[in-house]
Each structure stands twice: as C-alpha cells, then as structure tokens.
Amino acid sequence: MTNKAEVLNPVAITGLLVAAMRADESTRPDRLFEDPFAAILAGERGKDALATYRAAVGPSIPIIEVRTRFYDEGLERAADDGIRQVVLVAAGADARAYRLRWHSGTRVFELDQPAVLAYKAAVLAGSEPTCERVPVPVDLAKDFSGALRGAGFDSNRRTAWVVEGLLQYLEEPTVKLLFERIDALSAAGSVVLYDAVGRAALRAPQLQGALTMMKELGAPWIFGSDEPASLLPRWNVQAIDPGDIGRPLGRWPIPAPPPNTPARPLGYLLEARKA
Ligand code: SAM
Fold first, then answer.
1. What Gene3D superfamilies does the database record attribute to this sequence (predicted)?
2. What is the reported pLDDT for 1?
3. Which atom of ligand 1 lies closest to the CA of 8?
4. Of the residues 71, 113, 143, 170, which should be mutated to test ligand 1's pocket, given the most ligand atoms within 8 Å of the CB?
5. Confidence (pLDDT) at 3
C-alpha cells in the first residue's frame, strides 16, 4: 500500500485540495468545524494545489468551508433522527468517519476510486475511526450497487447519503444514473445531502480563475444545473443558497440579493428526504 499522492489521478487530487482548505479552516479562531486529519490527508500535494488555486482565484468565497459545515449539520440531523447507515459517495479525503461523534452502531461506507482509498488507508494507518468504517473501492461512473451490498450495505435500512464535491466532475448522464442508483438503494425516510454547481457558475467571470485552474489540473468542471432538485424527482428536496448559510455565520463576502430578485446562485446545497 502506498501513501504517495503521485499515484492519484487529477480528480483525486481535487480531494487533497479541499482537504488543504479544511486544514486551513481548522486553524482559524472563527472556524466552522475542526478537522484534525485534514492536514495529513492533504499532504504536500494538497498544499501545493491550494497555493496554485489561491494564486489563480485570489481571495475566494469560503464555499468549501460553508459546505463542510452544511454536511456536518445534515449528518447530525440524520443521526438525531435515528439513521445509523451512512454512505460517503466519493469520500476522498473526507475524515468524517474519524472526526465526528457517531452514535454506537453507526456504519459508514466510503466509496471512491481504489487508489484514493489505498492512499487514505496508508495515511490514516494508526488512527481509529469513531464508527464502523467500511471502504468500498468503486468506479462511480458504473453501477456500484453490487459492491456496496457486498460490503454489507442494507437497502432496507434508512441511509444518509453524502454526495459532496463530486457532480461537477461527471457527465450529465452519469449524474442522472448515480441518483437513480441512490434512489433504488434507499429505504423510505432516507436522506441525501448533495451539492451542485449552478449553470451560471460555469460562465461566471468571478469563477473563471478557478475553472481554468481545474481544467489545467485535468479535472474540468463539466456538470452544472439550476434545477438540481430534479435529480431526485419523488423526494422532498430543499435547495439552499450557500450564502444563506454563510451570511449568518459572518463568513460570506457577498451581500444577499434584494428581495424578489430571481435567484441564480452560483451553487446549491441540497437536503433531500425520501417520503
Ligand atoms: N467528498 C470529498 C470531499 O468533499 O472532501 C471528496 C471530493 S473531491 C473534490 C472529488 C472526489 O470524487 C475524489 O476523491 C475522486 O476520486 C472522486 N471521484 C470522481 N470521479 C469518480 C469516479 N468515477 N469513481 C470514484 N470516485 C470518483
């Protein structure tokens, strides 16, 4: 097993980049969360990617930091509601299986590319997860249901799914199939937390630096949607403008749009519940 980031492909490196952002956030006095594993998971490759990102983008909107907080709180709500089965789809360098305080009996499945899960296992060797953690190496562009069930996933139990920072890297038909599979595997009462880049973001002048950097890294953003709730047509979906979470936390540099303006956020955070 290797802990060398060199074996990771460009889209896997994006996971180290966001881990580097979480590492930085964890050092702030006004941090939105604390991730003690982020720095080691990001490693030098993640830190370098963050330096390149900051040089390209300049002072950026803390979307990853606000997003992390949204997912942490969504998982806490699901746990309070009694859900004990969690799937981190495209887990990357997400350390929630190690850093959150899970109820006993919680099982957390982590789906990602085999090389990413091998890297994580090597880097976190010696650290104890705070839940029953089950890594499941898969290609998410293909049908992962068999691998997930084979690893012990029970589709009769309610599940909290986390699809964080993934969709923009996938082709639209792949995104649709991914959500059909999640729906098919979800018992009534399950929850899906996910985020989507708005279509406007793919053309927004203030994001051109980030978009160019991602393209040059080899992980271009290709999927965006202004109707991300439609990915789960029979679910109750709440779509939130990240600014509406970031502003009350004092961490959002863009003022709220005037009332009655047609909303076109650059991105969406979504919480969906299966009836
Ligand atoms: N969810 C994590 C987070 O927010 O920290 C990781 C997000 S990272 C930006 C994107 C992740 O998607 C990477 O870990 C990458 O390996 C994974 N990924 C992208 N395409 C994939 C695929 N076809 N199969 C498995 N994993 C994939």
1. Vaccinia Virus protein VP39
2. 43
3. 16
4. 113
5. 63
Distance CA 23, CA 46 (A): 10
Report CA(63)–ligand 1 centroid distance (Å).
17
Residues 61-90 pLDDT 10s: 899 999 999 999 999 999 999 999 999 999
Predicted model pTM: 0.97
Strands 191-197 and 267-274 come out as antiparallel
Query: Is the distance from CB of 42 to CB of 19 less than 8 angstroms?
Result: yes
| Token representation of residue 156 | 């009769």
Domain coordinates of the chain in residue numbers?
2-254+261-274
Higher pLDDT residue, 254 or 238?
Answer: 238
- For residue 11, which atom of ligand 1 is closest to its CA? 15
- What is the spatial distance between Cα 14 and Cα 17, in angstroms, rounded to a whole number? 5
CATH 3.10.100.10 fits 2-254+261-274, yes or no: no
Mean pLDDT of the chain: 95
- State in Å: Cα 115 to ligand 1 middle: 11
Residue whose CA lies nearest to ligand 1 atom number 14 = 92
